Each structure stands twice: as structure tokens, then as C-alpha cells.
């Protein structure tokens, strides 16, 4: 029964190889990754993969030979119904009993031997192999270590970057960075480079053979390479390729000149309050640029006075140069005499730095910092930042209230037997002054005051006394007033409101203590109220940079001519819909969704849109590649270009209702009749 046994052996070999094959493939995965990731070790990895293939083939041959010798014993051990007679299937029966047993085995074999039995035999006979995977990982580890020792050093800075060798007959580049960058010119073969903005790039050919090639740029330009090379002043990132020689594209990435970075190291707060007895203050600043700083100065403005009598004086101090032209650091301990500051003055200062770009220099200005020197304590509230109100003659200041309270406490300590009526009278008198001052400040937060409005409110109560008793309006008008809310009836900012609330709360605590005949406990809240009022007084001066609109100057030849062309201000027709999507871009996006012909001058419209609407340099390069791919005839690349163009239309109007675009036979016939007319 050779045919039947060959079928059995093939199925056994298939089941075993299905088990061992993935294990050999797992051992090959690290070798394949090493070939991709370790270029220096590729020859060694190729040899390792060849050895792996030989071992895998040898393993398969070994198992096939083993199956041919032992398959009968495997069947007897796995299937008891075969009655240990599987050897009869591999030999020709010579006796009637042997032939009868073969027939019985064939009948049982068809019913009991299934695919699961083959898998069980393979699982029992062929175990897991760990040695090939371990040897593979060991080989990859050794190759990685060797590759690390053979790897070239890290790339040098841009000024000393390595260049690609120049081959005769091929296009190479001569790059001349701007002189102000201090980077030396260099030559390199065709490769990706990164250069400063406004560098001059020349495409040349050494020992040309045949026709001179031309360079196609990513922005649509085409430069012919002559004897003097092709020259371009590069402002934005682009790519280039040689027409007719190869389709390889090389990137030229541009590094833009960055504006200077200005830092105020000391003081650390934007508003720095100096101590009263301070004699000097330290100012530390730093300015840094990527190439060089040509000008850096400290601008100081001194403010003196209060109210409408504030005077300003300006002063500019240049920052000294350092050994590094890219950085200027200055730290100085200024005396108040050098700064010209007196008690009550404020000094505003900022740092302005300019780099060495010749055409478009960048100027950076730091935030404005304030040095505030407290002035002499005011004896009244006349200089407060709050709006002035006409006040009664007996309205005292918070400092006078503190003086009266301290005098009462001193008299009480000197005369412990002071009559209770006298103590109550004096304490309630100071409490009344505190209440009057609290009500005055409360008006600025929308609270009611009894200073100016008692008669008005009483008259209002009498006027509305005819309301129906017990009604909602009568109750509200009897026990309350329909005034604005506290947080809304004010003109102050949230910070000023918070200070006012703190002052009112302290005044209220002081008043409660005074009315409770405890003047000593009223002093701490009175001092808190005074500190809050002084904080309001110190904030009355606000410094703003001088700003003004300077209209563009008219040309001298247009003066007194009556010619207003180019001199009129911009006017837009009122009510006209503004179309933010150019018509050529809209038509191009629609045409790219089909396989037909594209509009005329489509590449120029696409490149102009990409150049004006895409800011990121890498995205701009990818979009320009898509334009060139479509120009080269790549139909699947139209979807990519369409996506780039649609991504630039961020301000496109939203079409809320779709327009019908079905082209029916009736419409075609109607259009034909219209064309005939």
C-alpha cells in the first residue's frame, strides 16, 4: 500500500513543519531587522541569514527522514484502535490473515485518524526549539556592539558640516551663507543640506560631459547650468532635481534668523516694591541672539509726582559688549542717587536688543518692570486714587482715627478709673468717625451711605406710603431699596475691588470693637485698613508706553497735483460678500477630484497658494513634491495635492445646502438648444 502510506507520511510531515516553521521564522526576524537598522553590519547579517537558511533546510530534511522511519510507531502510540498493527500498512500482505488485518486497519484509519490526531502527534514528537532564537539574538547583539564602535562621530555644527564628495560630470552645490552669520562657504555634492536664510546657492558641474543639465526647483523655477553655474538666493525651504539625469530630489532646508531673546534676571517681579530705607537696587539683564547683537540698551523712565502733576524723565543706558558677540549680560548695583529716585517715585525700565541682520534686523523688547519707592505717609485721603467726593467737614481720615484710638488707649492706661460714661462717649465718637469713613468707601462698591442720601430715602418712603399694605412691592419698599448689586455698581477693576473690600472689612471690625468699648482691640484692624488705603494710593499711577499712529508719507511728486491715485484710503463696498477662496484654486480642487485635464496654469496657482498659505517648512516641501508629482503625470498623486490645497482653505465659506449637479439627458438637450440660439 505505497500510495496510502505516502499520504500518511506527507500529512505527518506537514503537521510537524507547521509547528516548527514559525519557530524558525521567529529566529529570522532579528536578523532581518539588523540588516535594516545596522548598515555597517549588513555583510555579517547576510552570512547569518544564509546559515539560518541552511540550518532550517537541514532540520526539515532530518524530520522527513525521521518520519519515514518512525511513523508507524507514532500511529500505534497515538491511536489505540490500530491495535499496534500499523506495520501492516507499510508492507505488502502475503497471507490471508495479513490481508484481512490490512482491510480492517484501512476501514478504521478512515474513521479514527483526523486532523486533530496529526496535530497531537506533532505536538508530542516535535517540541519547542530555543537554540536558533537564542543564537539569532546573540548574533544581533554582537553586530549592534560592533556597529556602535564603527559608527561615524556625531554630525558637526553647521559651520563645519561634512560635505559629500564631488564626482566629475555630476551636479554639485556651492553655498555662500550671508556674511553676518559668520559661517564659511562650502561645496558639496548632491544631497540634502540645511543653510541659513538668504544664502546664495550655486549649482555647478565639474568636467561636464555632454549637454549641460538644468535644475528644476520645487517652486516651479527651472535654472540652466552654464559656465558660471546657476545661482539663486534662497529665502524659503525648497527641493531640487536635475532634469533628465535622475529623478532624485534633494532638500534645501532654510534656517530663519531668530530675533534676540531678552531676559530680566533681577528683579524677578514685574512690580518690585522697595523698602523705605533701601539705598541701592540691583538690576541684572541678559540678551542673546543666534548670530550677533549689535545694539542693546536699558531704557529707564522715572515718574515723580501725583495726580495731574506727574512728570516723566527718560534715560537710555547701552549694555556693554562681552567676549561673545551673541550674548550681552549686564549686572549692576544701582544706587538710588544714580537712578535719581526719591521717596514716592517710580522707575519703569525695559531692555531692547537688535541683532545684526543687515536687511531686516530683528528688535526685541522685554516687558516693562517697575521699581516703586514708598513715599511719605499721607495725612489725609485727598491723594487717593478713588474718585473725589464732597465730604462733610467732620469726616476724618483713617490715620486720624488711629491717632484718636491710640490717644484713648493711652488715657485709659494713665487713668484706669476713667468714668464709664466718658469712656463710652469717646469710644463711640471714634466709632462714628470710623463708620462715616467706612460708608464713604462703601459707596465705591455700590453700598448705601447715610452721608448724603438719608433725606432722599426718607422722602422716598413717604412718597410710596400709599402702596397697598402687605403687598410685595410695599414690603420691598418699606424694608429695602432696589439698588444695583454691589459687584456691578462700580467702575473699578477686580484687583481694586478686592483691596476695597479688604479695607471695608477691617473698618467694620474696628467699628465693632469701638462700639463694644474695647479700643485696644480696634487698633489692629484700623492698621489693616490703613495699609489697604495706602496700597490704593500707590496704585494711582499707571505707566503706558507712548503709542501713536503715523500715517504713511505721501510722495513729494504727488503733492499739490490733484492726483489721488494711490493716495486714497482702502475702501470696501458695504454689503458685498467677501470670497476668501480664489476662483482658480476652487476650480483646481474640483478638477483634481477627476481624472480629466487640469485647468491652464494650474501649477502656478497651486504653488502660489502653497507659498502664501502654508507656513511650516516641512509641510511646504511635501506640498511642492505633490505638485511636481502631478506635473510628472502621476494620477494617484492628485488626491494628495487636493488634500494639501483643501487644507489651506481654512477660511472657506460653509455651504449649508448642496447645489444640484446632476447632468440628465433633458438638461443636455436643453443646453444644446440654448447653444444653437
Radius of gyration: 47 Å
Report the total helices: 18
Shape: extended
Residue-averaged pLDDT: 75
Binned strand content: 15-25%
Structural class: alpha+beta
Uncertain spans: 151-161, 378-395, 450-467, 570-577
What kind of assembly state do the chains in view correspond to? Answer: single chain
- Largest beta-sheet details: 6 strands, mixed
Organism: Duganella alba
Region (Disordered): 374-393
Transmembrane segments: 21-38, 44-61, 128-148
Keywords: Membrane, Transmembrane, Transmembrane helix
Descriptive overview:
It contains 18 helices and 18 strands. A hairpin with a 7-residue loop joins strand 16 (346-355) and strand 17. The chain has 5 domains: 2-147, no CATH class; 171-255, Immunoglobulin-like; 266-373, Immunoglobulin-like (Sandwich), CATH 2.60.40; 398-448 and 487-540; 583-658. It is 43% helix and 16% strand. With 677 residues, the chain is of the alpha+beta class. Helix 1 crosses helix 5, helix 12 (494-515) packs antiparallel against helix 13 and helix 14 (583-592) packs antiparallel against helix 17. The chain has helices at 2-37, 42-78, 87-90, 96-112, 115-125, 131-150, 336-339, 398-414, 420-442, 454-463, 472-479, 494-515, 519-538, 583-592, 602-613, 617-631, 637-648, 665-676, and strands spanning 171-176, 186-189, 193-196, 199-205, 214-217, 222-224, 230-234, 238-243, 250-255, 261-266, 271-273, 280-288, 293-304, 311-318, 327-335, 346-355, 363-365, 369-372. The strands form 4 sheets. Strands 11, 13, 14, 16, 17 and 18 form a 6-stranded mixed beta sheet that branches. The protein has a 5-stranded mixed beta sheet with strand order 3-9-8-5-6, covered by helices on one side. Residues 151-161, 378-395, 450-467 and 570-577 have low confidence and may be disordered. This is DUF4175 family protein. Keywords: Membrane, Transmembrane, Transmembrane helix.
Amino acid at each position: 500500500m505505497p500510495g496510502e502510506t505516502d499520504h500518511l507520511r506527507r500529512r505527518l510531515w506537514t503537521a510537524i513543519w507547521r509547528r516548527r516553521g514559525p519557530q524558525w521564522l521567529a529566529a529570522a526576524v532579528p536578523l532581518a531587522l539588523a540588516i535594516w537598522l545596522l548598515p555597517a553590519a549588513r555583510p555579517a547579517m547576510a552570512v547569518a541569514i544564509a546559515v539560518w537558511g541552511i540550518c532550517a533546510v537541514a532540520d526539515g530534511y532530518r524530520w522527513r527522514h525521521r518520519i519515514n522511519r518512525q511513523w508507524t510507531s507514532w500511529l500505534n502510540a497515538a491511536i489505540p484502535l490500530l491495535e499496534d498493527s500499523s506495520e501492516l500498512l507499510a508492507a505488502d500482505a502475503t497471507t490471508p490473515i495479513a490481508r484481512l488485518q490490512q482491510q480492517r486497519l484501512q476501514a478504521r484509519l478512515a474513521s479514527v485518524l483526523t486532523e486533530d490526531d496529526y496535530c497531537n502527534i506533532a505536538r508530542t514528537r516535535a517540541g519547542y526549539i530555543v537554540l536558533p532564537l537564542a543564537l539569532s539574538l546573540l548574533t544581533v547583539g554582537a553586530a549592534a556592539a560592533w556597529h556602535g564602535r564603527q559608527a561615524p562621530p556625531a554630525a558637526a555644527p553647521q559651520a563645519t558640516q561634512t560635505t559629500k564628495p564631488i564626482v566629475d560630470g555630476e551636479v554639485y552645490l556651492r553655498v555662500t551663507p550671508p556674511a553676518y552669520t559668520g559661517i564659511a562657504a562650502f561645496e558639496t555634492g548632491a544631497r540634502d543640506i540645511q543653510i541659513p536664510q538668504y544664502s546664495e546657492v550655486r549649482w555647478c558641474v565639474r568636467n561636464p560631459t555632454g549637454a549641460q543639465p538644468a535644475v528644476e526647483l520645487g517652486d516651479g523655477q527651472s535654472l540652466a547650468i552654464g559656465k558660471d553655474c546657476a545661482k539663486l538666493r534662497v529665502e524659503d525651504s525648497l527641493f531640487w532635481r536635475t532634469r533628465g539625469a535622475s529623478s532624485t530630489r534633494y532638500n534645501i532646508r532654510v534656517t530663519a534668523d531668530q530675533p534676540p531673546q531678552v531676559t530680566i534676571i533681577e528683579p524677578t517681579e514685574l512690580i518690585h516694591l522697595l523698602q523705605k530705607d533701601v539705598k541701592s537696587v540691583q538690576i541684572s539683564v541678559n540678551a542673546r541672539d543666534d548670530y550677533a547683537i549689535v545694539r542693546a540698551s536699558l531704557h529707564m523712565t522715572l515718574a515723580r509726582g501725583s495726580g495731574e502733576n506727574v512728570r516723566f524723565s527718560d534715560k537710555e543706558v547701552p549694555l556693554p559688549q562681552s567676549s561673545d558677540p551673541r550674548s550681552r549680560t549686564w549686572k549692576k548695583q544701582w544706587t538710588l542717587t544714580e537712578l535719581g529716585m526719591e521717596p514716592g517715585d517710580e522707575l519703569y525700565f525695559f531692555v531692547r536688543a537688535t541683532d545684526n541682520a543687515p536687511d531686516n534686523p530683528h528688535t526685541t523688547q522685554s516687558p516693562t518692570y517697575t521699581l516703586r519707592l514708598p513715599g511719605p505717609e499721607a495725612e489725609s485721603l485727598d491723594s487717593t486714587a478713588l474718585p473725589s467726593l464732597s465730604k462733610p467737614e467732620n469726616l476724618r481720615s483713617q490715620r486720624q482715627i488711629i491717632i484718636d484710638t491710640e490717644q484713648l488707649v493711652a488715657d485709659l492706661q494713665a487713668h484706669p478709673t476713667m468714668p464709664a460714661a466718658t469712656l463710652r462717649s469717646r469710644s463711640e465718637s471714634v466709632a462714628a468717625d470710623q463708620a462715616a469713613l467706612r460708608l464713604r468707601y462703601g459707596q465705591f462698591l455700590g453700598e448705601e451711605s447715610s452721608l448724603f442720601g438719608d433725606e432722599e430715602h426718607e422722602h422716598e418712603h413717604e412718597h410710596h406710603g400709599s402702596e397697598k399694605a402687605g403687598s410685595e412691592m410695599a414690603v420691598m419698599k418699606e424694608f429695602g431699596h432696589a439698588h444695583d448689586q454691589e459687584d456691578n455698581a462700580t467702575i473699578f477693576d477686580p484687583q481694586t475691588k478686592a483691596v476695597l473690600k479688604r479695607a471695608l472689612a477691617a473698618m467694620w471690625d474696628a467699628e465693632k470693637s469701638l462700639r463694644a468699648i474695647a479700643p485696644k482691640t480696634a487698633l489692629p484692624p484700623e492698621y489693616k485698613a490703613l495699609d489697604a488705603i495706602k496700597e490704593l494710593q500707590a496704585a494711582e499711577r499707571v505707566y503706558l508706553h507712548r503709542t501713536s499712529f503715523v500715517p504713511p508719507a505721501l510722495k513729494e511728486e504727488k503733492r499739490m497735483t490733484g492726483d489721488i491715485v494711490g493716495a486714497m484710503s482702502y475702501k470696501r463696498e458695504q454689503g458685498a460678500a467677501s470670497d476668501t477662496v480664489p476662483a482658480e484654486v476652487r476650480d483646481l480642487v474640483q478638477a483634481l477630484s477627476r481624472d480629466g485635464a487640469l485647468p491652464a496654469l494650474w501649477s502656478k496657482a497651486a504653488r502660489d497658494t502653497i507659498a502664501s498659505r502654508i507656513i511650516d517648512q516641512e509641510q511646504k516641501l511635501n506640498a511642492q513634491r505633490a505638485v511636481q508629482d502631478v506635473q510628472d503625470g502621476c494620477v494617484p498623486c492628485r488626491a494628495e495635492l487636493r488634500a494639501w490645497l483643501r487644507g489651506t482653505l481654512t477660511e472657506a465659506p460653509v455651504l449649508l445646502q448642496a447645489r444640484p449637479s446632476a447632468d440628465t439627458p433633458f438638461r443636455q438637450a436643453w443646453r444644446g438648444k440654448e447653444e444653437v440660439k
